[in-house]
Amino acid sequence: MNIEYGFGGIPNFGRALAVLIGAITVGGLLNRILMALFGVSGEITAASGVVKSLMNDLIRVNPLIGVGLLILVLTLAALAGAVTGAVFILPSARLSRDYLAITLLAISEVLFMVSYYHPRIIGGYYGTSVPDIFAWAPSEYRTALFAVLVIITATIIYIILERVLTSPYGRLLRAMREDEEVVKACGRDVMYVRIRTVALGSAIAAIAGALYSLYTLNVVATSFGRVEWTFYPFLMVLLGGAGNRRGVLLGTLTFTLIKIILTTYKHEINNLIQLPFETVWLEYIIFGVLMLLILLYRPEGLLKERPIMTKPMEKYAERAE
Fold first, then answer.
1. Residue after which a domain boundary falls, among 183, 199, 224
2. CB neighbours of 309 closer than 8 A, spacing ≥ 6?
């Protein structure tokens, strides 16, 4: 989200689309590949349970199979996310930002509904089962192992993006965000830049969807709604500071801390102040109000955007000092 909105000024309100594609890669594509390898037939909802049991037995014997499965899943998810992001933004890349946001949101919702009501994709409202890549480890260590995996994956992605966004491409994104007409006047194709940017962001989002599916061990379309996978990430970017990589990390940590507190103590809060509504809505109301307050009073977020310093600029700054 920070690549697309923070740097490129692309309001991708269809972020949940790429995350769902990552989940479909795990729950749909991977299961069908394994069904073909094991010779399992039938509806994917039931067949995925059989495949899961067979794969878990193999991973318990040889943990390297789980590592290979993880690499395969993340690679397929990134490719599927990039292709899907590029394809779906292609017909709308020339639209203004307002219409682009609405169009991407509509496309995301259509795919969500199709995935939910069409059982041949990921089992419809029943969902599909997913093999456990950590089947070899004791169950009490599984959460810790997944936390380490997520941290390693996020660190690798952060390092890659650090190099990409401090390159001329990153400066091009900022220029497009500030004034598209200037970018066009310099001979750059704004549509092509948008497609590349959304493809990159969608690849990363699809990896997130794949990791989440591997963690939960099942894939159901309702787990990938627009609130959790579009508007919450958007709030994290706004809270930390759009266009600031460290700011977004801070915004994500702050958001997560607030969410944990609300989830853990929502009933205590209700008993204390007697909420005039059900406690289930407390989280949505607080985050909605928080987003409005940020947009009105602190649009730069917790950390302001830092200028990109190229090597010649750094040398000039050193001489000036």
1. 224
2. 317
**Strand partners for 129:** 218
Is residue 18 located within the same domain as residue 116? yes
Closest by Cα among 121, 104, 122 to 226? 104
For 96-127, b/e burial (b = at least 16 CB within 10 A) is eeeebbebbbebbbebbeebbeebebbbbeeb
Q: Which residue, 80, 86, 60, is CA-closest to 4? A: 86
Residue 307, pLDDT > 80, answer no
- Assigned token pair, 272: 């204390």
Task: Tell me how many domains the chain contains.
Answer: 2
Query: Mean pLDDT throughout 103-116?
Result: 91
Are 132 and 170 within one domain?
A: yes
With bands split at pLDDT 50, 70 and 90, how would you rate the model's confidence at 2?
Answer: confident
User: Which residues, listed in sequence order, are joined to residue 253 by a DSSP beta bridge?
Assistant: none
In terms of Cα–Cα distance, which of 198, 208, 197 is closest to 85? 198
The token pair at 278 is 């059900």
End-to-end CA distance of the chain: 36
pLDDT tops 90 at residue 133? yes
CA distance linking residue 127 with residue 107, whole number of Å: 21
Q: Which amino acid is at 285?
A: I
pLDDT (mean) for 263-271: 87
Give the range of the structural domain holding residue 245, as residue numbers without chain letter. 226-321
- Exposure class string for 136-148: b at 16+ Cβ within 10 A, else e: bbeeeebeeebee
pLDDT at 179: 82
Q: What is the pLDDT of residues 137-192, one digit of tens each?
A: 998 999 999 999 999 999 999 999 988 888 888 888 888 888 888 888 888 888 88
Out of 197, 224, 251, pick the residue that ends a domain. Answer: 224
CA 294 to chain centre: 22
pLDDT (tens digit per residue) in 59-85:
999 999 999 999 999 999 999 999 999
Residues 246, 209 share a domain: no
